[in-house]
Amino acid sequence: MKGWAVDLDHCTGCKEAMLQPLPIDDVLDDLRACLADAGAVVLQAPPGAGKTTRVPLALLDDITGKIVMLEPRRLAARAAAERLAEGLGEPVGQSVGYRMRGDSVAGRRIEVVTEGILTRMLQSDPELSGVGCVIFDEFHERSLNADLGLALVLEVRAALREDLALIVMSATLDAGPVAELIGAPVVTSRGRSFPVEDRWLDRPLRKEARLEAAAADLVLQAVDEAEGGVLVFLPGEGEIRRVEGALAGRLPQGCVVRPLYGAMGFAEQRAAIAPVKTGRKVVLATSIAETSLTIEDIRVVVDAGRARRARFDPGSGMSRLVTERVTRAEATQRAGRAGRVAPGVAYKLWARAEDGALLAYPPAEIETADLTGLALELANWGSDALPFLTPPPAAALAEARALLADLGALEGGRITDHGRALARLPLHPRLGHMVTLGGAAAAPLAALLSDRDILMGAPVDLGLRLRALAGERVAFGTHKTALPRVRQEAKRLAKLAPRPSHTLPPEALAALAYPDRIAKRRKGDTPRYVMSGGKGAVLAGDDPLAASPYLVITDTDGHARDAKIRAALPIDEALIRDIAADRITPVNACHWSKRDHKVLARTQERLGAVVLSDLPWKSAPPDAMAAAMVDGIRQIGLRFSPAAERFRTRVALMRGQNADLPDMSDDALLKTLEDWLQPHLAGVHTAADWKAFDALPALRAMLDWAQMQRLDSEVPSHFTTPLGHDKPIDYSGEAPEITLRLQEMFGTTTHPTVAGRPLRVTFLSPGHKPIQTTMDVPGFWASSYADVRKDMRGRYPKHPWPEDPTQADPTLRAKPRK
After folding, report:
1. pLDDT digits (tens, 9 = 90+) for 244-265
2. Could you read off the pLDDT of 593-607 as tens digits, one per residue?
3. Domain 196-367 carries which CATH code?
4. Which residues pair with 702 in a beta bridge?
5. CA nearest 681: which of 631, 715, 614?
6. Judging by DSSP bridges, how do beta strands 110-114 and 96-100 pair with one another?
7. Per DSSP, what are the bridge partners of residue 325?
8. Which residues form the Helicase ATP-binding domain (predicted)?
9. Which among 104, 110, 143, 337 is least buried, having the fewest CB atoms inside 10 angstroms?
10. How many angstroms separate the CA atoms of 246 and 670, rounded?
């Protein structure tokens, strides 16, 4: 094979493996040619093609300098390094090495690194001195670190290192956009080494069926129908343990069950990868087994059809793990594991008809993840105008920068010395801030918060975990693999930590890392909390911390409204005031209390949304009280006196012909309360005050003098009766209407009008009961009045009822006594 500096005669155990043909072999010459011509290439090679173990070795004679290959997972990086070294007939540590967090072995020519390591290399040496080629393996996973690393490498190639070779390799990626981004040709390898038969369920899984039970049944079917080792894909460790329990005692004799997930130790992971000496192996794995990893003797795949992903909510500032359907790309990748060493079978826990509903590709992590680390790296790099394949969402990036500013890592958008110190630590910026300020004493807590829970079934108190980590006995079971791993990480972080000026308790350290999650208990029996960042959280009522007035919450389920608290520490107010003194602000505020139905004026000390002290504000200015009352009116709703309603009706009538008049509809008035109503609310502080308030003067003030004159002329508010009394005109019906006592219109011989329009007149009896409505008063006198007079004389004999009302004087008085 061209370009290989490999002495296979001296290669212990690798000669047979390296001579075995793989699909990638057919395109290696094309790959090298494209790389020599363009300096970059996108390699599209399906699972089993052999790209991870063949490509770096094929480039050894072509590349001057070291080849750095990125792998998305620690296990895959270490396994790839071992296979590459085996291909050269050497142990790891000579030509081939690897580097990951907490573990590294130097290599002269090839170094396999986890994706975050490349960012550290670029930040410390942007020219990548001594590196001749960077290979991004399994780029289809679109991890945040891989996207950032590619963007940084592209900028370095454009500005500093035109000679730096670049290869992006993927199994299921849509290669077109990547090739366009990096300006490179695409080389495509043919499919997997061996055929894989796909088998689906006959019908979709019932909604009420438990995933673990159905997966276990499908595993038993696969073991019965197919030969060889079985690789089962499940969402997470919890599902792995439950399926393992469901299979206990049901598998044929000789079947060995091996879990495989990221949080396991390397020894256990190796046991899952290594072939069994006798019998068959059933590997229960997470997505860790999807890529860059050949698990010996696997010929059968069982795919439960679920993937677990982190989802970040920029509104709450929290991430949560969600379990979703796999995408078609992931299903293809998983099925390919069955064809790595021999023809295989892939069993799928869904019906074939459901394939069409699967999304094509999983979302890029940059679209859904917490971007705090990315924002810090961009600030440390000095620019965020990088050529990202998928640009980071603006809202999530803004939220991340706000947190960094809160941590003191950014000032005016630029990185501070403290921010640079955080960027050097292999931790989330929150935890890096804690370790930087707290020193080695913060290392155990940082290690705890970086890993899975080390206690099983324990309350939320992190103090229990810290005591268990220190070796104290606690009344809860410890996670056998997580506990030693966290202890080891705590020791490593303690060595990296600076020496602090003074020692802080754990709750103070947690508050430094999570300044937006210092929480105060709300009033009421239920332990509900409001966090300084403004979001709510709730604690189980039987939790020992349920009565704590203040907490520092380090983990929740991520619910946007009332997140369930999963980890926290109690903290007292005095300590909060000590460590957050520069962020506690005095606030004088007036607000409408929905519970009290009035404006409350308070002077407070606030830590974000947390109110530390709350006293009456006796000197609250009237304009602040009025502004709060406006908020209350928006909740209570508008109300108008009859006179105010008539005024609004008049304006609405005239506005049909005069568009310059203001809109007095409910919607328009509610939107502009601050303009027309607030100046008139002096002394109105309660719902009762509002009920007694007459808004007519405020409505009239919306019209200028000329508009009022025109309104009174064209749509007058009152009709003057023959007795000189003003009767309000109601414009709400089809015609303007007045209501008055019949005797008050005696002597009227023409029908009354207003602005040229006839009035509808409703006559009332002396007892103020309607007796007649007319649009023709003279006609009423001449016709119906006689019948009305006959009826009314008997009912109201003391009041005048003349035979000819047109000749009588208007009156409201009764007849004089004889």
Report:
1. 999 998 999 889 899 988 777 7
2. 999 999 999 999 999
3. 3.40.50.300
4. none
5. 631
6. parallel
7. 306
8. 32-191
9. 104
10. 62
Are 304 and 233 contacting, i.e. CB atoms less than 8 angstroms apart? yes
- Angle in degrees, 0-180, between the axes of helices 506-513 and 462-469, rounded to the nearest 10: 120
Residue 206, token pair as written in the block? 């019932």
> 10 Å Cβ neighbour count for 55?
27
Burial (CB count <10 Å: 0-12, 13-18, 19+), residue 553: buried
Q: How many CB atoms lie within 10 A of CB 159?
A: 10
Would you state the structure tokens that stand for residue 10, as one six-digit string? 């001296």
CA distance 615 to 606: 12
CA distance 8 to 86: 10
Neighbours of 568 (CB within 10 A): 28
Cβ atoms of 47 and 340 closer than 8 Å: yes
Q: What is the DSSP letter of 730?
A: B
Token digits for 517? 């999650």
Question: 279-293, 297-311, 457-471, 653-667: which range is least confident on average?
Answer: 279-293
Which tokens belong to 323?
Answer: 């379990």
Can you name the residues that pair with 66 across neighbouring β-strands?
A: 131
Rounded to the nearest 10°, the torsion over CA 425, 428, 429, 434 is: -80
Residue 242, both tokens: 């439950």
Give the helix/strand (H/E) hosting 323: strand 318-325
Beta strands in 534-665 (DSSP E): 536-538, 550-556, 562-570, 585-593, 598-607, 610-616
Distance CA 65, CA 272 (A): 35
Q: pTM score, two decimals?
A: 0.73
Q: What residue ranges of the chain are covered by domains with CATH 3.40.50.300?
A: 8-188, 196-367
Phi and psi, residue 434, nearest 5°: -65, -45
Contact yes or no for 346/301 (Cβ under 8 A)? yes
Give pLDDT, residue 767.
92
CA distance 795 to 798: 9
CA separation for the pair 655, 662 (Å, rounded):
8
Element (H, E) at 366: helix 365-368
Question: 634: alpha, beta or left, given left = phi > 0 and alpha = psi -120 to 50?
Answer: alpha
Angstrom distance (rounded) from CA 799 to CA 633: 48
